[in-house]
TrEMBL record:
InterPro entries: Catechol_dOase_N (IPR007535), Intradiol_dOase_C (IPR000627), Intradiol_dOase_core (IPR015889), Intradiol_RC_Dioxygenase (IPR050770)
Name of this protein: Catechol 1,2-dioxygenase
GO biological process terms, semicolon-separated: catechol-containing compound metabolic process
Molecular function GO labels: catechol 1,2-dioxygenase activity; ferric iron binding
Keywords: Dioxygenase, Iron, Metal-binding, Oxidoreductase
Domain Intradiol ring-cleavage dioxygenases: from-to ranges: 130-158
Needed cofactors: Fe(3+)
Record-linked PANTHER family: DIOXYGENASE, PUTATIVE (AFU_ORTHOLOGUE AFUA_2G02910)-RELATED (PTHR33711), INTRADIOL RING-CLEAVAGE DIOXYGENASES DOMAIN-CONTAINING PROTEIN-RELATED (PTHR33711:SF7)
Residues forming coiled coils: none
Protein family per UniProt: Belongs to the intradiol ring-cleavage dioxygenase family.
Species per Swiss-Prot/TrEMBL record: Acidovorax carolinensis
Length: 306
């Protein structure tokens, strides 16, 4: 065998094996390779275009930006939409909507009981408190839930990714009390954009798209017997609230801000002047399996042996 047609080559690529391999991986690879062969032929992709794309993928991985592209091309939200559809089919409704995790979670943030400051005693911007309860679908408190919270700094950077920030800066875990209560003090984070002069920005410039995300705060809420909830809340008033690069904003996750709240009762958070507050309850579904209650993020799930 030396001369091959496109179809013969594709057949060989998709059928060759010396061992059973992994049937699911074989199935998915076959589909993706077949679709790409078709794309290259139908759109008459040139060798220069192909190798430019291969080089871009290499640079994307080296820059650690795979998770930015998956969000920007809609895959993260697609997986959430599919999860919502599966829930609807299974008759599972209610609770706080899920929202994409994003690529910037870091496990192991310091844990506090009931309340904490995320800003580590260095006031930046508007003093902000978010508080509420973790509840089940019947409105009952979920005690000892773990509320993992993380957000960007005043210029849109995340600790462990943005130079000059302390480990776990603006990242904390809060364990709820018997009433399911949590609260934290921080500042209102701004929106942010994909890094300029990066593989991600290159593609977005070529697509004529912006790379902005509206202001938001991330959460991962976990508790024994409850379905782990990954979500975000959005700060109202952001220019991009309905035009998110990552398509992640959702109804029910845009918080209301109360301005000029009296400081009484907030002394333990170092507050002595009127401040901005939002109240938000996280409502969790019961876990349908032990797997659903695992307090793991998306990459922990796929790298943790079952
Ligand atoms: Fe974010």
């Amino acid at each position: 065998m030396s001369e091959l047609t496109q179809a013969q080559l594709l057949e060989l690529v998709n059928t060759k094996k010396i061992a059973p391999g992994n049937a699911r991986v074989r199935q998915l690879t076959e589909r993706i390779v077949t679709d790409l062969f078709k794309t290259i032929d139908e759109l008459d992709v040139t060798p220069d275009e192909f190798w430019a794309a291969a080089g871009w993928l290499t640079r994307l991985g080296a820059a650690g930006q795979t998770g930015l592209i998956t969000a920007g091309l809609g895959f993260d939200r697609l997986l959430d939409i599919r999860a919502d559809e599966a829930d609807a089919k299974a008759g599972r409704a209610g609770g706080t909507p899920r929202a994409i995790e994003g690529p910037l979670f870091v496990a192991g943030a310091p844990m506090s009981q009931v309340e904490v400051r995320l800003d580590e005693g260095e006031p930046k911007g508007e003093v902000f408190v978010m508080e509420g309860q973790v509840l089940d679908l019947n409105g009952q408190p979920v005690p000892h839930a773990s509320v993992d919270v993380w957000h960007a700094n005043e210029v849109g950077g995340y600790s462990h990714f943005f130079p000059g920030m302390k480990p776990y800066e603006l990242r904390r875990r809060i364990e709820t009390d018997a009433k399911g209560q949590y609260r934290f003090r921080s500042f209102l984070p701004p929106g942010y954009a994909i890094p300029p002069n990066s593989p991600t920005s290159e593609l977005f410039e070529a697509l004529g798209r912006h790379g902005n995300r509206p202001a938001h705060i991330h959460f991962l809420v976990a508790a024994p017997g409850m379905r782990t909830l990954t979500t975000q809340v959005n700060i109202p008033g952001d220019t991009y609230i309905d035009d998110d690069f990552a398509f992640a904003t959702r109804d029910g996750l845009i918080v209301a801000l109360e301005k000029n709240v009296a400081p009484a009762g907030y002394e333990s958070l170092g507050i002595s002047a009127p401040f901005t507050r939002t109240k938000f309850n996280f409502v969790m579904q019961n876990a349908a399996s032990a797997d659903e209650a695992l307090p793991l993020t998306r990459m922990e799930r796929v790298s943790t042996p079952a």
